[in-house]
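Structure ticket #2291
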Amino acid sequence: MELLQLLDQPGREYTPFPFWFLNDDLKDEEICRQLQDFAAHGVYGVVLHPRIGLPKEMEYLSESFFHAMETAVREAARLGMQVILYDEGMYPSGSACGQVVAADPAFASRGIDLVPAEEPGDTVLARTAEGVLVSRFSKGTIRGIHFGQDDGEPDAPPSTDLLNPDAVDLFIRLTHDAYYQRLKPWFGTTIIGFFTDEPSILGRNARTPFPWTMGLEEEFTAAGGVLEDLTALFHGKENASTRLYETMILEKEGSVYYRRLSEWCAGHGIALVGHPHRSDDIEVEKWFQIPGQDLALRWVGPRHNATEGIDSTMGHCSADAALLMGCRRNANECFGACNRDGNPWQLSGGDIKWYLDWLAVRGVNLFIPHAFYYSIEGPRKGERPPDVGPHSIWWGRYQLWATYIRRLSALLTDTEVQVQVALPCRNRDLHPDVAARLQKAQISYCYLPESVWPDCRMERGQLHCRGLAFNAVAGDMDFFPELPHLGSEAFTQAVTPDCLCSPEQEELRVRRFQQDGVECWLLVNEGEEELEAEIRFPGADCLGQYDLWEGKAARLAAKDTAPVRLPRRGSVLVFSCSRTQWDSLPTAVQPVILPEQSFYLVEERPDAIQKVYQTELTVSSELLEAESILLPVQAEEMCELTVNGRDAGAAFWSPCRFELKPYLHLGTNRLQLTVTGSLANRYGNHPVPYGLGIREIF
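Resolution: structure written out below.
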């Protein structure tokens, strides 16, 4: 099957594209060495991210700066890697590290505020009984690339008015045009995109709560708005003027900032990549050739907001936007500062696996790990840690992670998604409560943002929109009321879950789609306990399965129903196949699972954060006849096993299971287990227990 060939050998284009924090003295030989190291570990793409820690003598967009960028791009091209450029120094985007405002102070971010009395420089918009409504500079900043330019520091660069077309045009001239002039030969080949990062109209740490731009008052009143009525914004209330204001700000943000960047990228043969300011900013996704979002700061995580709150919507936000626009890929900048308990560097391999599966089952198919650090020297190690690449404990085993990411990305690219329910929404109102009900019932849905509503039509009893056909609607009861809506008996009759579980499984997530003409179900256990159910896959003939981590296909059932067991952190691809195809699949191996062995501690290596355990296993001829022999281990965090001196692999989350069959011989066998603990023990605020018999702590 072509599907299995795709998964067995996923192409380089499906590589993770890590943020590469360029945060120290950038030397040609070190840039090349690190890129070569990335490629050797299965990473064939990077985002070149100028980051705090660059030497002061290397000014942003200077000759020395571009020399380093060109060195990286040239070496990436030689290695057959791809590059996504980054449009700021450091973030949020739009200010050219303060150079836009330096060129014209009038281009600084603006906002509105309700104050007792105006100050010099304020523009009075309205005098009301509640105070004076003024437009003023927000005094917002961005995070810069040099020490002393961080939040609250005196040299933090000023942010730009992204609603001002002249300011945005200057930003593009300073950054995009300068990059193109220097790197033109690689655009559209090695260089595939430009990343824009959570652009903020007000900037960070702004003194004004709501965005504005010079002259907006004339446009606003001409459109029927009443300036005095905007005082409702400051009380969290809504009226006709506040609704008009929100609409105009969103439209301006899209047309002035995102559209300009999008058109520039399209005109230069690359994609606009990146993500908007908030997880539920769905309307501006339409300007990206690769829509994206940002999973950071543990907004969601195991046992934490997986289906609750605005951040739980981000996976569908980018994936559904891509689906509606016909984009092949959608991205997520993932893992950034997703530490547990606010303890820097406490991010486990089990968490990484959970995040990858959480994003994939919602349709994300381009992963941008945050981050691979050029350097962790001095304070750099404390700047939005952890490093999830070369300075992580699992870097020596990163091929396993890179291959898993490529498989997920390949599997979810160029698919025909099977979706039954339309979920109409407005920007920053993606109904996470409704989405959660559907996910827990294994019912597929697609967000329909307000801008696509004019494209919706009824045809033969279905709702059609941009090539998609829906049988029912969730959320707004007034949206195409002739269709069955969530909560009604008609909905239950019109919508069949993507898979039917007995007993019900609220922690099971499913994505149903066709890949290479094959009906597929990606199943993910989002919970903390093993999941076991009899599951029927509607429309299937025979069922095959593919272990996406191990890279192994097998028969599942010669019918449309099968028992499925997913361990904690488990994921599996189930696919429909003909009886002939099913017969050609390997029979699923029934392993012999050994009882947990009594390992004894033989060595502690505190500098390496490692504990070494050994045991002896006596193996009989009867045991050796088994097709598979699994050793279960309960440990935190990375476990590496040798059997009789031979490498038997690594595991990164419990329950760890090691395949012993290829390494055992008759009689006495020596097993050695090395457990490497979290780097929070070296760089964090408090130590984290590690070793055998320790469960992950939440």
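Closing remark: The CA atoms of residues 44 and 80 lie 7 Å apart.
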